[in-house]
């Protein structure tokens, strides 16, 4: 029987304080720093799901909704949305959290991750158990994003 894991089994949440060394020339969180944090979260989600090493294959729909500023608390949440044979899609949402705990979305991205065996070759990933309607809807949306990625690859983008 194939291995299976729930979406909740690999969910990751990290919290960062925006410090002066994280800022760009406009005094906002530098996109490259945020991208590093997002990639780390996506990697941790995929690693938890596969229990193996993983690599980042691509990033889609990296959407900057709002900026983050010095002393902002940035919360990043990653969760598995789709699995193929050796690849997976991880949704990563970013929020700025206010002192009262309210979270305002500032970014969303979808990462394609690939599981690697001990010889650095792609390996089969565990199936994903979908428990909620939200998880099922995200799976269906992920299939469409995957089709778009495949089309772009065929067209050389």
TrEMBL record:
It comes from the Bacteria. It holds the Pfam family 4HBT. Keywords: Hydrolase. The keyword Hydrolase applies. Residues 8-119 form the HotDog ACOT-type domain. One of its GO terms (molecular function) is long-chain fatty acyl-CoA hydrolase activity. GO terms for biological process: acyl-CoA metabolic process. GO terms for cellular component: cytoplasm. Belongs to the acyl coenzyme A hydrolase family. This is Acyl-CoA hydrolase. It comes from Muricomes intestini.
């Amino acid at each position: 029987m194939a291995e299976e894991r729930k979406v909740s089994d690999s969910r990751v949440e990290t919290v960062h304080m925006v410090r002066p060394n994280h800022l760009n020339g406009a005094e906002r969180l530098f996109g490259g720093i945020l991208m590093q944090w997002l990639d780390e979260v996506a990697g941790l989600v995929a690693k938890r799901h596969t229990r193996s090493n993983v690599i980042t294959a691509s990033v889609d729909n990296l959407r900057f909704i709002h900026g983050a500023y010095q002393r902002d608390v940035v919360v990043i949440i990653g969760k598995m949305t789709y699995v193929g044979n050796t690849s997976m899609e991880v949704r990563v949402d970013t929020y700025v959290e206010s002192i009262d705990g309210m979270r305002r979305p500032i970014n969303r991205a979808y990462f394609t991750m690939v599981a690697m065996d001990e010889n650095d070759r792609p390996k089969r990933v565990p199936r994903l158990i979908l428990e909620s309607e939200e998880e099922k809807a995200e799976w269906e949306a992920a299939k469409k994003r995957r089709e778009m990625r495949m089309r772009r690859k065929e067209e050389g983008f």
